[in-house]
Description:
Structural class: alpha+beta
Helix content: 25-40%
Strand content: 5-15%
Strand order of the largest sheet: 2-1-6-3-4-5
Amino acid sequence: MADFPISGYHGRILVADLTKGEVRTLPLDPDAALDYLGGRGLATRVLCDTIDPACDPLGPDNAFVVAASPLIGSTAPTAGRGHMVFKSPLTGFIGTSNSGGTWGAAFKAAGFDVLVVKGAASSPAMIDISAGRAEILPAGHLWGKTTHETNDALAAASEPGNPARVLCIGPAGENLVRFASVANDRNRVYGRCGPGAVWGSKKLKAVRVRGREKTAVADPERYRAGLDQALYLMKQAPVTKRLLRDLGTAGLVELINLISMLPHRNFQDCLHRDEDVERISGETLARTLLEKAGSCHLCPIGCQRHTRVAGRNGGEERGEGPEYETMVLMGPLCGIYDMEAITRANYRANELGLDTMSYGGTVACAMELAERGRIGRGETGGLDLSFGSADALESLVGLTARREGFGASLADGSHRLAAGRGLPECAMTVKRLEIPAYDPRASFTQALGYMTSPSGACHLRGGYAVSLAFFGGAREIPRFSLLQSPIAIRNMQNTGILQDSLGVCRFTGYAFSADPWARMVSGVTGRPFSVARLEEIENRVAALERLFNVGAGATAEDDALPARFADVPVLVEGRERRVTREDQERMRRDYYRVRGWDGAGRPTPELLRSLRIGGSRG
């Protein structure tokens, strides 16, 4: 609020209770701001103060929290990302999801630091936020519309110099698909862990924001020192200077195949013909489908792919992507190398509000179940579920989002699908979240990241180990080091916590580490945020996320890979590689130790006291 003692914050938490139909503004605790910073950290603290971790994720007692950071509203590069935290209906544990675009910056400009939405409306509703105020409005006229249709209808309220930015769900969220996403700017999404289903369970269709409030900088000289350092380093690093703008994230396809990490046929192997990989590469995308590159708010990198593709029924379609994860998980993981089919399926998933990663992983699981005789054409309405069926990939997007026909079986994710067919081992998940497009057998460090990620198998929350093994510079480590992996993945996870809590892009990490951020945060807030102090915040957030999961029922047994990765090897550099149960146990034990957790994976009382952490409401 006006007298909030820390620059960079408005000091306001907006709380919307959909059951009561009420909105109110609460003061932000300055100590919470200093201890958790913003974004992921602050949102996690507020969530833990709001809900019981044992609550029903699709019930009115769940809530979702979106938080900005003190850097959002400044000129810091990429500082405009929002972070959403909730209990996941897909995993049953903490759900944590991040999105770029412009909504995060617009929310901060509306005069708030944190949005909390709890309860459930009796009929479709939206929240309209502007200039330090908010109201709950009926949204029946929007229910059933796609994310694009909803965005365009609500963004029409824009005024010169005061654009309306929209966060919304599509039909998948309305139908409680457990991996439904929340979209902004049409194609920027909070994708992982099913936030769209949480919104749908609350009958919340959209949140529109408008505002012009500024973010003050307490120490311009110190802020400028960090900003200049960051911009200089981003112009020097090849990844942030040119590679991502030229090829986007799909530029990774050839590299990941080269290092034997590109998954195939539901992670049965990593074997591909070179000509097939080339068909889905970033180079081919740039040559055939790309119209132009694009950027999120204040981003000089420009990794977005604005593309166009031939439609199935003639004409031409335009949209964004596919990104690397989508290209691979809807592609080779399903035995598909048809870039145009993958792109169309990606467009439909964005419009209908589906996480493309979990969708691809679930379709691949279904294809293996069909291959093993557990799903027949009678159940799929005649669709051929063989690996390589691009028609099935495209057709099932709409069926899944609407929970129609066989799509209703896919809508609950691969864990429930495989368990219901008596073959739970066919679900390639950790904590019931589908594994990203990097085979963990090709990197012990990445394997441990998947195992210990608070939200389930996630290369972002779990730590992106590929960069450590191949372009980590001074931080580079061998990818099969049992000794170094626990410390390395802890550090990578902490780096991600910092970036998520500052509202900045992960790709900045290819150019610089924490020092420029420490200077910029110190400059904006006027408080001394050293690198060591930022590390303390990172450890605090990691411990709090673990506390939430323990309260939700998580145990050490949940920090494990599917059996396939221990039992079935892949060939890497001429040698068979797997992640044995013994290797998993050793890495998990050592990881708990470097985190300061006990042998069961619970933060110790001593650690909680040293980090000044209280528990969750539960």
